[in-house]
């Protein structure tokens, strides 16, 4: 299975510490070597890096690890191919535009017998179940609303569509429009909210510790969401199967359990 | 004004030589320091690197110069802001999906009094006239066809839309779907087709020479298109104002003069 990493903050923050451990799962400490990707929102804009090489030895991954891009919303993905060949068009995260916003989506799981009809607004470019599911959600939202509804209404509709897709199989995902970040747990997803007083955190995948108190201000709040906890000295919250959370400004704002 | 660089080939080729001279125009040898971007198609997938820092000292540009990504279609852009502030959402190239294909667009120029109505399918995220023009073209094509027409019909319709937009001001652009690359000249655009026997070429912007005969096979054919010729010992063809060309497999295939 693939691995997901997300970050949602109330102030632009770099993800270097979390990515340091996470990227090693792509071919070094774990077996997810079929490509990877990471998207950083900066205001309404987004930087999307994707690569069909394993993240542990990707030049693009080396860039991301050395380049402290500050962002309020980040989604990263390391791929273990289940459906769709290994090529660039099948690398997550996927990007589309809706209502003049970029949306970013990454999926961990496997949807069986899911065959979306050709969309009027959105169609998959690659051959993954994941991009097809993303396009299905975007298509349904766009068909329902010409302009964006309020966040609670939107969240409820995404929850309804998610439950439908969840019926086809494993559907852990992350979705962001640069303002909020939504996570859905099907089998495995954990999160932590870091805020003052900030802890010193130690990575599971590598012997690296960072004292967040030295790199943050007292008002900073950062939510990190990952398939498997990235640190071994902090308390991560395990999401429940069927649980969906909308994070904004570094904290859970809306929750849905199906 | 901005600078454009495009490459269309009959076999995946790296753009390192051309990019070596081109990237220096972003803040070193010329004054286009308001961001830059480059898109590489790989099959149906696309790598899009954008940065709101000058290309001459951008870490992302350093990566691109060291990482020989091979592609049949590349579009690069160095920005000198005319409309829209300097931020990531306003960096070219822009990307959208249509008919299950990614399309990439970059513009050099300035469109006056161009105010597109809100699109049903496509809307700009940033505040440039360029992205608005791209969305206008995409919107019109998608409204006309639910599935892609043949290339000649598509080219003729893009030429019609281009003439309309050209009425608003300077509109040099490059557009690619990964199969073909279309260039339109409003004020300044040059191209060259390189094929066997391959020449040794010398960069204008830097004292670098490459002997293409040593890095190609006899069947390779590469079209390079740039605002200003990149080499000083080859014969570049100047496009005419109102001329639009569709390149495929490294050579002009369709031409339109308005």
From TrEMBL, chains A, B:
The keyword Electron transport does not apply. The keyword Repeat does not apply. Residues 2-250 form the Glutamine amidotransferase type-2 domain. Pfam families: GATase_4. Keywords: Glutamine amidotransferase. Signal peptide: none annotated. It comes from the Bacteria. This is Class II glutamine amidotransferase. It comes from Vogesella alkaliphila.
């Amino acid at each position: 299975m693939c691995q997901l990493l997300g970050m949602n903050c109330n102030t632009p923050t770099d993800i270097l510490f979390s990515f340091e451990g996470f990227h090693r799962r792509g071919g070094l400490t774990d077996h997810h070597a079929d490509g990877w990707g990471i998207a950083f929102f900066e205001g309404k804009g987004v930087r999307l890096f994707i690569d069909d090489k394993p993240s542990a030895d990707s030049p693009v991954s080396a860039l991301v690890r050395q380049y402290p891009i500050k962002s309020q919303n980040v989604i990263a993905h390391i791929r273990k191919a289940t459906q769709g060949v290994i090529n660039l068009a099948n690398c997550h995260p996927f990007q589309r535009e809706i209502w003049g916003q970029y949306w970013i989506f990454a999926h961990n799981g496997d949807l069986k017998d899911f065959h979306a009809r050709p969309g009027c607004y959105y169609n998959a470019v690659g051959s993954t179940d994941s991009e097809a599911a993303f396009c299905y959600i975007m298509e349904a939202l766009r068909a329902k609303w010409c302009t964006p509804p309020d966040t609670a209404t939107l969240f409820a509709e995404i929850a309804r569509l998610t439950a439908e897709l969840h019926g086809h199989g494993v559907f852990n995902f992350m979705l962001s429009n640069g303002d909020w970040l939504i996570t859905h747990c099907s089998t495995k997803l954990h999160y932590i909210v870091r805020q003052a007083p900030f802890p010193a955190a130690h990575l599971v995948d590598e012997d690296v510790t960072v004292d967040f108190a030295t790199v943050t201000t007292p008002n900073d709040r950062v939510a990190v969401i990952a398939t498997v906890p990235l640190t071994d000295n902090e308390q991560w919250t395990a999401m429940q199967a069927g649980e969906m959370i909308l994070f904004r400004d570094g904290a859970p704002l809306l929750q849905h359990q199906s």
